[in-house]
Design goal:
This protein is α+β, with helices and mostly antiparallel strands. The protein is about 35% helix and about 25% strand. The protein has a six-stranded antiparallel sheet with strand order 1-2-3-4-6-5, covered by helices on one side. Strands 7-9-10 form a three-stranded antiparallel sheet. Helix 3 packs antiparallel against helix 4, helix 3 runs antiparallel to helix 6 and helix 5 packs antiparallel against helix 6. The longest helix has 20 residues.
């Protein structure tokens, strides 16, 4: 049991592990001992002490950034303790993730349209706020009832000059293989790299839905163009094209 201010936190089970964090489902109790609900708690956890300082800095930055991103399609942080030996933060607990839902074959056309809508709305907000996510992928889209939210901000970068201290060697490739934009192989990260990753995600998401995949071909190809200059200029332009596709499909449902 972890004591934090007026709350007590009781870990129940591990629900996920990343490169430098473990996620557990926890029960949150108030000072009177009343259960407030079940949440997800992410704690810094790495196996190599040589990388401890870099990953600690990245974890602290993740918690602060995610707490500041207040948007209906971004997983909110409610409590955190970052200046301790094992920093942690507590988030809203989702029901599943898009990778699992896709693997289980449970996604309908309406589900897929909602996932795309939620993803694009959240990414437009993140980019407008001056950040690049750098790890957009299916497992980082979490389901909450009928709403989907982006999680895992461990690789987020602030695009404002001098706002982010360098935590990796210049030229290091960040994110998840398969979602990498070509230019990131030599450390070039811009908004266009996120747009490429979005295109890869969309390609996987719509592949098994014939009524959607055919109509999304041009949009996906523009997102995943080899040359960044040939991709969409911004998320808003993707949204404009997607809304036209979505409107036509919903008329047929």
């Amino acid at each position: 049991m972890i004591e934090h201010g007026n709350y007590r936190i009781n870990p129940i089970r591990v629900i996920g592990k990343g490169s430098f964090g473990v996620v557990e489902e926890v029960e949150l109790y108030n000072k009177a001992g009343t259960l407030c609900g079940n949440y997800a708690m992410k704690t810094l956890s790495i196996s190599d002490d040589n990388d401890l300082e870099e990953f600690r800095k990245r974890f602290l930055r993740e918690g602060r950034y995610q707490a500041n991103f207040v948007h209906k399609n971004i997983v909110p942080i409610y409590l955190y303790s970052l200046n301790v030996d094992k920093p942690w933060f507590i988030m809203e607990l989702g029901k599943s993730d898009v990778y699992t839902e896709l693997s289980n074959g449970t996604l309908t056309l309406i589900d897929r349209l909602e996932i795309i809508t939620c993803l694009l709305d959240a990414m437009a907000f993140i980019h407008k706020s001056g950040y690049i996510h750098r790890d957009i992928k299916l497992p980082n889209l979490i389901k909450f009832d009928s709403v989907y939210k982006i999680s895992d901000f461990g690789l987020v970068k602030n695009t404002q000059p001098n706002q982010d201290s360098a935590l990796t060697v210049i030229g290091a490739q960040m994110g998840t293989q398969g979602y990498w934009a070509p230019e990131t192989s030599y450390g070039d990260y811009t908004y266009k790299a996120d747009i490429y990753s979005i295109g890869v995600l969309l390609s996987t998401l719509v592949r098994a839905e014939p009524s959607l995949s055919g109509k999304m071909t041009d949009l996906i190809n523009t997102c995943t163009s080899y040359m960044p200059a040939s991709r969409y200029e911004n998320i808003e332009n993707i949204i404009t094209d997607f809304e036209k596709i979505k409107e036509k499909l919903l008329c047929l449902v």
